[in-house]
Amino acid sequence: MSLAYPYGVGLGNVGSYQVSGAPYARGKVAAPANSGTPTQILFPDVTQRIVVSNINAASPLRVGFSSNGVKTNGNFFLLPPASGSFYPTAEFRVKVSELYLLSDTGVPTSGSVFAELTNIETTLLANSGPNGSSWSGSNGVG
Q1: Domains, the chain
Q2: Low-confidence residues of the chain, pLDDT below 50?
Q3: CB–CB of 138/69 below 8 Å?
Q4: Is 89 exposed, middle or buried (0-12, 13-18, 19+ CB in 10 A)?
Q5: Are 29 and 110 within 8 A, CB to CB?
Q6: C-alpha span between 130 and 120 (Å, rounded)
Q7: Exposed site from 30, 63, 92, 133, fewest CB < 10 Å?
């Protein structure tokens, strides 16, 4: 290891992603109607994996990485409404510090979020949003 380039935890550090992540879970996260303000989930550290489920039969759930993306830009993933004991789920292997949820209709819905967190501080992400680091403003995000 060079003293000029010390080895440590960071976005390009493979070891930070090879180990199991620290768990982060939130259930019954409210997602307001599409005319409302998206629900923001701020992670305490950079994620390595996120699993989101639509747990409500009321409406499809928009999942994105910026408020603008789920609100107006169409840069989101859409999870269909829950049906009986089936909860549509999506898994993302991404390094982000925040996630946004919004109903796809005028009816509020809800979701659950599970994430694996690295030991990487969110301030190390390149793009800084108003509430910390995010990919907001990036192509395909918002």
Answers
A1: 19-124 (2.60.120.770)
A2: 128-131
A3: no
A4: middle
A5: yes
A6: 19
A7: 30
Residue 135: per-residue pLDDT = 66
E strand or H helix at 62: strand 61-64
For residue 54, give both structure tokens: 């639509």
What tens digit of pLDDT does each residue of 95-129 get? 899 999 999 999 999 999 999 999 988 887 765 44
Distance in angstroms (rounded) separating the CA atoms of residues 122 and 108: 29
Helix, coil or strand: residue 18: helix
The length of the chain, given as a count of residues: 142
pLDDT at site 91: 97
pTM of the model: 0.86
Distance of alpha carbon 80 from alpha carbon 61, whole angstroms: 6
Cα separation, 53 vs 71, in Å, equals 19
Q: Which amino acid would we find at residue 7?
A: Y
Write down the pLDDT at residue 140.
73
